[in-house]
Amino acid sequence: VLPRTVTGHTLFTRVFGTAMFAVQPCYAGQRTATPVHGATYEFLETKAFWEEAHGPLITEVRDGEKNYLLPHTLLSSAGLNADFPDSFISNYSHWLGDDLKLYFRDTEYSTPGFEKGREGAA
Fold first, then answer.
1. Cβ contact 69:11 at 8 Å
2. What is the pLDDT of residues 92-102, one digit of tens each?
3. 3-state secondary structure of 76
4. Reduced to 3 states, what is the DSSP secondary structure of residue 111?
5. Which residues are within 8 A (CB) of 69 and not within 5 positions of it... i.e. 6 or more apart?
6. What is the largest CA-CA distance in the chain?
7. Angle at CA of residue 28, ends 41 and 102, nearest 5°
8. Where do the DSSP E strands lie in the chain?
9. What is the pTM (predicted TM-score) of this model?
10. What are the angstrom distances between the C-alpha of 17 and each of 14, 37, 50, 88?
């Protein structure tokens, strides 16, 4: 079971709601024990700067590629709200891929086509 510091954080609840995943330990904290809609999710709690400023690090592993969930507030604080319409900031979840592309996805992980999202410039 994931700790409340993960499941209660807005970064988690914004995309996963009240979902409860079976997890197992991994090098990066905990990961889903079985694929969820074709992906494995890793949840890392760290006391480093990232968690203090943005929450737990949530990584999606799909087809060998990693995508990192970004807090929607990060785009505003990074000044990207001038580059994208407000609806892209507030109505989508934001994932940074290993390819350094920014992906805009639905805010509900179980929505059909969630993994495809929309590609933006990073």
1. yes
2. 999 999 999 98
3. helix
4. coil
5. 11, 15, 58, 59, 60, 93, 94, 95
6. 40
7. 55
8. 23-26, 29-32, 40-44, 57-62, 65-70, 93-97, 102-105, 118-120
9. 0.86
10. 6, 15, 21, 20
